[in-house]
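Regression report. Comparing outputs from two consecutive submissions.

Submission 1:
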Amino acid sequence: MSGYKKLIKLENIPEIIIGDFDCGFNKLRNLEGGPKFVFGNFDCSANDLTTLRGGPKNIMHTGIYDCFDNNLTSLLYAPKIINNFYYFKNLLLTLDYISYNE
């Protein structure tokens, strides 16, 4: 499909992003080299991710963590606190590693 990006790895990304970070619709297999803190939305949807390793440790405020449409079998390495987490359309075998705010 035209318009899709072709990134295969994340490089030279600041550790802290104030605003949204979108690396969706690429060919990423992991999130190594990406930001550690995002003060906004984080979108890594529609890649070839098999792991969330290297992804943000925190999505601040009311941000969305969107990792739908990948090849994830686990949510290991997902942030511990997420307000809105979209992880559908993956190959998940378990929902372990998710914490919900009550």
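Submission 2:
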Amino acid sequence: MEALELVNLNWTVGLQLNIPIFSGFETKSRLAEVKAILSQAKANEETKRLEVLTELEGQYLNLLLAEKQIEVAEENLRKAREISIWPWKV
């Protein structure tokens, strides 16, 4: 064995793995936070939806009122024309 040289090889391998032993409170807390955010977003959506519907209803009622006011104005104009020419009718 004189001709063989022994080679000494040293190998080092490292592995790190982090496994939380207990993260229940953190997980539950985060889940509760996400649920609260989702709930708030849904409430905001419903509020905006109701605001839009209320505004739309108000505008529709304004349109109906304006149409009625036009009808009344036209009727008043018709009556005014009748009155203004009545004495001169033969």
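Expected: both submissions complete independently.
Actual: both completed, but the second showed a warning that disappeared on reload.
Relevant detail on submission 2: DSSP finds one helix and no strands in the chain.
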